[in-house]
């Protein structure tokens, strides 16, 4: 007389069912299974993290996957003959075009107020640099006009709140438009997880010490750039730590 266990499945089906239970329990408790590979439950594919891409504006570069571009569009960017704004637009479009589909970006033009790129209702969050979004960004950038005054703080705060890897700031503001001490402290806290790269059009008379200080505090770089492409008098450009280390290693090797 055959004993009935209450499970009418054939022995082979019952064994396969038991093996699946054991595999599931092992996966749940982190226990390595000695079962044959064919009997173990398949594992999901590993998720690969993109290594990031290097891009920049006017010679200041940084590596990352999340980029926010903060560009001045005050009235002075139209003088002379619209050249500063035209040069800024060209460089911005070039940098965005360097990004791949897995990178994300955001664009903020500012004067007294913010003018942001927000395709398909994406205001307040970065967008992937797909071909469609890059084309939309190009149209947005090309339509920007220069007018109004200059207020850096609100634009930078909006950029840092997006938690990017890198913020690129471009301005032609005078030194009188520099951040206040209170704004510098607040932005330094907001931007503690991002690198801040600052390009300022003009000569030494336009140098904004607090913008330069913000870039340094956020592990970035600051430079003054004449539109003619000649370095401004006394211009200093901070190098990335990796670049400085590479140069030091090369000097050590040459000295040996």
Textual characterization of the structure:
This protein is an alpha/beta fold and 256 residues long. Helix content is 35%, strand content 18%. The N terminus and C terminus are likely disordered.
**Residue runs with pLDDT of under 50 for 5 or more positions:** 1-5, 24-49, 233-239, 241-256
Q: How far is it from the N-terminal to the C-terminal residue, by CA? A: 89 Å
The tally of structural domains comes to: 2
Name of the level-1 CATH class of the largest domain? Alpha Beta
Could you say what the CATH architecture of the largest domain is? 3-Layer(aba) Sandwich
Rg, Å, rounded:
27 Å
Overall mean pLDDT: 80
Specify the overall morphology.
globular
Order of helices and strands: HEEEHEEEHHEHEHEH
Query: β content, as a range?
Result: 15-25%
Structure described in brief:
This protein has 256 residues and is α/β, with parallel strands linked by helices. The protein is 35% helix and 18% strand.
């Amino acid at each position: 007389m055959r004993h009935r266990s209450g499970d009418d499945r054939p022995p082979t089906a019952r064994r396969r069912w038991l093996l699946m239970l054991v595999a599931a329990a092992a996966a749940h408790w982190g226990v390595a299974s000695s079962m044959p590979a064919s009997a173990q439950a398949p594992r999901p594919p590993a998720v690969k993290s993109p290594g990031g891409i290097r891009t920049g504006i006017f010679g200041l570069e940084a590596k990352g996957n999340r980029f926010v571009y903060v560009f001045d569009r005050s009235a002075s960017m139209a003088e002379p003959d619209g050249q500063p704004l035209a040069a800024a637009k060209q460089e911005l479009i070039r940098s965005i075009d360097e990004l791949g589909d897995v990178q994300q970006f955001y664009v903020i033009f500012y004067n007294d107020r913010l003018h942001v790129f927000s395709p398909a209702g994406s205001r307040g969050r970065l967008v992937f640099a797909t071909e469609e979004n890059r084309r939309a960004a190009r149209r947005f950038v090309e339509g920007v006009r220069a007018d109004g005054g200059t207020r850096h703080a609100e634009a930078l705060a909006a950029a840092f709140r997006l938690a990017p890897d890198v913020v690129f700031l471009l301005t032609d503001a005078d030194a009188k438009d520099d951040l206040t001490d209170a704004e510098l402290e607040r932005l330094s806290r907001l931007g503690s997880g991002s690198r801040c790269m600052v390009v300022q059009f003009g000569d030494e008379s336009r140098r904004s010490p607090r913008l330069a200080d913000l870039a340094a505090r956020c592990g970035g770089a600051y430079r003054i750039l004449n539109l003619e492409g000649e370095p401004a008098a006394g211009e200093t450009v901070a190098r990335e730590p990796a670049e400085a280390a590479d140069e030091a290693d090369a000097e050590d090797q040459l000295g040996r």
